Amino acid sequence: MNDAVVLITGARKGIGRYLAEHYVRRGAQVVGCSRSEPDWSLEHYTHFCVDVTHEADVRKMVTSVHKRFGRLDVLVNNAGIASMNHVLLTPAATAERIFATNVQGVFLLCREAAKVMQRRRYGRIVNISTVAAPLHLEGEALYAASKSAVVTFTQILAREVAAYGITANVVAPTPIETDLIRAVPQEKIDAIINRLAVKRLGRFEDVANVIDFFVRPESDYITGQVITLGGVS
Amino acid sequence: MEITQQAVSRQQVVEIILAALQDVLEGVAPEETPALDENTRLIGRSAVLDSMGLVTLIVETEQRLEADYDIVIMLADDRAMSQTRSPFLSISALADYVMQLVAEQGA
Q: What is the distance in angstroms between the CA of the first residue and the CA of the last residue of chain B?
């Protein structure tokens, strides 16, 4: 990863922060973004306060990355929001918010990043889905639907940008101990774990391991793929 | 993150599009690059590009305008797609459309 430029959305905390630190350790120049400032800093890490649903701000950020580093090698679309609720009790505003961040945000980042990546005929895009989609988890209809959209979007994107030397793949994590699942009752988490082949919570390392594989230069023949953690298929 | 915009002439825009088109065509068939000028057709039966080539040309033109002149515009917006006379018809039409968008941004 020496000198590679890696852009990670939702980098302030959780998986995003772990990935930022992970790729800095591996010698990359890492750029991260989130809606608010992180309470940490790191050498070889630059942070932008950007809401991924704002087209103009996303474009300015990617332009700034291109101007500063002259390239963009890897994009990890980690920013995402969830809202656990029964469909019959879910406000329309919640649905809009989930789709704006999880789908529109991913689209905007992919579009702008691919424009920069195509100039060097090289790029690696990794989007994040969830086991909630293949497991059809009750209470997560909108979250899982938005992440299913991410899978379909990525699979078509992969075909459209293949000629530019850009790959696009998806990792679908199991529940991991982050803010996203902190509000979920323990018995619900246990029920999900029981449906996995490997019966434990996910770890940040599990996600990073798959992303490492997708973003290797040698993975240029691997695109439009979904790797689901925990043995869910 | 504010982007300062430099003035650009129509001739400079034409040169950017011609250079971008040259690169796109060389990437497809380096030994068969046709002679290019402002009247070169970009879409239609006599076009020098296929549909994927046109996508690449539009993105390359946007990227070069940004890199060389700090001009940030979106060429393939809803308005461009709905015009009866496509701004992607020829290099000349595309240059006119770029100048129109630049003028609107400066207004």
A: 20
**Residue A164 annotated in active site:** no
Q: Is B3 part of a structural domain of the chain?
A: no
- Reduced 3-state DSSP string for A43-59: CCEEEEECCCCCHHHHH
B93, part of any domain: yes
Residue A184 banded pLDDT, cuts 50, 70, 90: confident
Our count of domains for chain A comes to 1
Domain count, chain B: 1
CA distance linking residue A162 with residue A136, whole number of Å: 31
Q: In what helix (H) or strand (E) does residue A166 lie, and over which residues does it extend?
A: strand A166-172
B47 close to B41: Cβ distance less than 8 angstroms: yes
Tell me whether A64 touches chain B (CB under 8 Å): yes
CATH number at residue A62: 3.40.50.720
8 Å CB contact of B3 and A60: yes
- The whole domain housing A207 covers 5-231
For an interface test with B, the pick among A50, A110, A115, A121 (most B C-beta atoms closer than 10 Å) comes out as A115
ipTM above 0.85, yes or no: no
Write the CB contacts of A70 (distance below 8 Å, at least 6 apart in sequence): none
Dist CA B10 CA B33 (whole Å): 24
pLDDT in tens, A21-58: 999 999 999 999 999 999 999 999 999 999 999 999 99
Domain that holds residue B81: 10-106
Query: Is the CB of B56 inside 8 Å of chain A's CB atoms?
Result: yes
